[in-house]
């Protein structure tokens, strides 16, 4: 009937051999149009459920790989060449594509785990290096203004003595004398800059103001191993009076450590002397360079794997990963249709098909049965009596009329053999579209015309 009315539909039964059902349904879908009724509507068992589950897992892997490819700079998936894929769809086999996807998925998962570990180690080395640099700067500042230390004081106690003097120099005689009898300790680490104020307030309230916290901004952002986002961080040093007995950890030290743990920040050892700090800085720099070298090697591996997935499968075709995606969608549609069939040796299902394509359907079934699989034949049995159920609506379209038919189908499908409004939409839609934007043009033109009149009146007034 064309675009004016829907096609005349016929009802029948399609019978397929179970061993070649997938191939027959594939070629039927490639050459003709057919709609199947669900013969297993009341049954909980679907014969091809396992295939659907396998394809669901393959599609999940493809979504994961596509998400990972978006993180690769310059990665672009070539798509929208469906016709070329359909012409070469037989090149792909379900088992082969599944095996390759599983292997690539394992490689990417292993890479992500290794990359997360390497990035975490590099960040830890970077953070500790910044803590050591802060310690060196603090010791250099103290050495310029420290008082004479007692002769009996060991070198390892140099910083504790200097820190206690610098923090309590403003106190009067008795208090200054007590600084030699108490030891000031510190806890240093790195935390995100966005948590800096909350961290300082929490420490102040938990310790009742008996701590002094110093922050030093890190200008180089660090990449979060879990999210991949860049995070700005700061070095913090918490100074407090450590009234510990012997080697036991003081209550203040334990309280501050718990607060650091609740914020999820990393704490690092504060070097005792400047010589130790400089040695640590050299060692940490070597660690950072080693981890960075390994990260670059992993990135090179990802780029090579991404290039293989983004490479067009054939000349003028889509990327390999896009063709795999379309292959999974095609196979899933085939097996979903096969789930509507019933039977064991032979599968059968009631179906609707255009009356004008009946001869073509029979020719396709005969040709496919005789050319490749003579012992496995399929048949289409047409109903002699008209069915009681109402036939589905099928309107034949082309590249031009398909757009207007989609506009009509957005608001509702015509009934079977009802006049199709898409024919009138071809004329009315461009007209109404032009009227709509023409009105906007009129609305924009009126203020412009009014402005011109005002400008003319102003010019006459000036003259």
From TrEMBL:
<dbReference type="GO" id="GO:0046961">
    <property type="term" value="F:proton-transporting ATPase activity, rotational mechanism"/>
</dbReference>
<keyword id="KW-0472">Membrane</keyword>
<keyword id="KW-1133">Transmembrane helix</keyword>
<keyword id="KW-0406">Ion transport</keyword>
<dbReference type="GO" id="GO:0051117">
    <property type="term" value="F:ATPase binding"/>
</dbReference>
<comment type="similarity">
    <text>Belongs to the V-ATPase 116 kDa subunit family.</text>
</comment>
<dbReference type="GO" id="GO:0016471">
    <property type="term" value="C:vacuolar proton-transporting V-type ATPase complex"/>
</dbReference>
<dbReference type="InterPro" id="IPR002490">
    <property type="entry name" value="V-ATPase_116kDa_su"/>
</dbReference>
<keyword id="KW-0813">Transport</keyword>
<comment type="function">
    <text>Essential component of the vacuolar proton pump (V-ATPase), a multimeric enzyme that catalyzes the translocation of protons across the membranes. Required for assembly and activity of the V-ATPase.</text>
</comment>
<protein>
    <recommendedName>
        <fullName>V-type proton ATPase subunit a</fullName>
    </recommendedName>
</protein>
<keyword id="KW-0375">Hydrogen ion transport</keyword>
<dbReference type="GO" id="GO:0007035">
    <property type="term" value="P:vacuolar acidification"/>
</dbReference>
<keyword id="KW-0812">Transmembrane</keyword>
<dbReference type="GO" id="GO:0033179">
    <property type="term" value="C:proton-transporting V-type ATPase, V0 domain"/>
</dbReference>
<dbReference type="Pfam" id="PF01496">
    <property type="entry name" value="V_ATPase_I"/>
</dbReference>
């Amino acid at each position: 009937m064309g675009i004016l009315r829907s096609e005349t539909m016929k009802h029948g039964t399609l019978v397929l051999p179970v061993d070649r059902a997938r191939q027959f349904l594939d070629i039927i879908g490639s050459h003709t149009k057919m709609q199947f009724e669900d013969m297993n509507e009341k049954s909980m068992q679907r014969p091809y459920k396992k295939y659907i589950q396998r394809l669901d897992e393959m599609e999940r892997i493809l979504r994961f790989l596509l998400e990972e490819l978006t993180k690769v700079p310059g990665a672009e998936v070539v798509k929208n060449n469906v016709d070329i894929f359909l012409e070469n769809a037989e090149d792909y086999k379900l088992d082969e594509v599944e095996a390759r996807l599983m292997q690539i998925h394992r490689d990417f998962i292993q890479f992500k785990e290794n990359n997360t570990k390497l990035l975490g180690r590099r960040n830890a080395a970077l953070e500790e290096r910044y803590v050591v640099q802060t310690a060196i700067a603090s010791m250099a500042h103290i050495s310029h203004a420290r008082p004479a230390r007692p002769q009996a004081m060991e070198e390892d106690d140099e910083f504790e003595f200097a820190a206690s003097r610098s923090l309590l120099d403003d106190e009067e005689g008795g208090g200054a004398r007590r600084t030699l009898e108490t030891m000031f300790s510190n806890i240093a680490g790195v935390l995100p800059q966005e948590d800096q104020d909350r961290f300082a307030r929490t420490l102040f309230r938990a310790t009742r103001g008996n701590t002094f916290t110093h922050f030093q901004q890190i200008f180089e952002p660090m990449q979060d191993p879990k999210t991949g986002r860049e995070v700005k961080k700061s070095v913090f040093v918490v100074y407090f009076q450590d009234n510990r007995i012997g080697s036991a950890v003081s209550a203040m030290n334990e309280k501050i450590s718990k607060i650091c743990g609740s914020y999820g920040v990393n704490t690092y050892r504060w070097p005792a002397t400047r010589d130790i700090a400089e040695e640590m800085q050299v060692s940490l720099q070597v660690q950072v360079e080693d981890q960075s070298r390994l990260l670059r090697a992993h990135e090179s591996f990802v780029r090579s794997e991404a290039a293989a997935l983004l490479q067009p499968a054939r000349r003028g075709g889509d990327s390999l990963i896009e063709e795999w995606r379309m292959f999974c969608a095609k196979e899933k549609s085939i097996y979903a249709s096969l789930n509507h069939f019933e039977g064991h040796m032979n599968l059968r299902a009631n179906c609707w098909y255009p009356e004008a394509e009946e001869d073509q359907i029979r020719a396709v079934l005969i040709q496919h049965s005789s050319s490749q699989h003579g012992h496995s034949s399929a048949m289409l049995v047409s109903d002699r009596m008209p069915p009681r159920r109402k036939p589905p609506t099928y309107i034949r379209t082309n590249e031009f009329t398909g757009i207007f038919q989609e506009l009509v189908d957005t608001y509702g499908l015509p009934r079977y053999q009802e006049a199709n409004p898409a024919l009138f939409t071809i004329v009315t839609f461009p007209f109404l579209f032009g009227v709509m934007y023409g009105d906007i043009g009129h609305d924009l033109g009126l203020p412009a015309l009014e402005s011109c009149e005002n400008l003319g009146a102003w010019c006459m007034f000036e003259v």
